Amino acid sequence: MIQQFMSRQFLTFLLTGGTAAAINFGSRIVYSFWFSFSTAVILAYLTGMVTAFVLAKLFVFKDTEQSVHRSALFFVLVNVVAVLQTWGISLVLAFHLLPAIGVEHFVDEIAHAVGVAVPVFSSYWGHKRWSFR
């Protein structure tokens, strides 16, 4: 299992996922002008998820034999788990852990960045196994 994380495909996944994560992160800042932090995290995740699907289909898992509809369905299911990870970690950090350790500046940004980074491995495994097999 560890070998699949030491492949060119995983590196490409990290690059495309990093692009989607940057879009996720940036869009959360924009969404925060109109929505609460919690809602902005979810909306940003959806924005990043659409970006991630397109990039993964084009560059990472381009040889999949599944239909786009089936891939999209599994992609959404895998991302339901990932968004719960992102949302939960972001909120725990922003409202509990970071304030408890005295962090006062860029709390939302730090919390969201960590929340976005955490599901990298579970997402790759899920997409490889189900979304784009």
Give your account of this protein's structure.
This protein is an all-alpha fold. 78% of the residues lie in helices and 0% in strands. It contains five helices and no strands. Helix 1 runs antiparallel to helix 4 and helix 3 packs across helix 4. The longest helix has 33 residues. The protein starts with 7 loop residues before the first helix and ends with a helix.
In short:
This protein has 133 residues and is an all-alpha fold.
Largest sheet: none
Overall geometric form: elongated
SS strand fraction: under 5%
- Please estimate the helix content: over 70%
Secondary-structure-derived class: mainly alpha
Keywords: Membrane, Transmembrane, Transmembrane helix
InterPro entries: GtrA_CellWall_Glycosyl, GtrA_DPMS_TM
Organism: Pseudomonas emilianonis
Membrane topology: Multi-pass membrane protein
Task: Summarize this structure as a short list of keywords or feature phrases.
mainly alpha, 5 helices, 0% strand, transmembrane helix, GtrA family protein, GtrA_CellWall_Glycosyl, GtrA_DPMS_TM, transmembrane
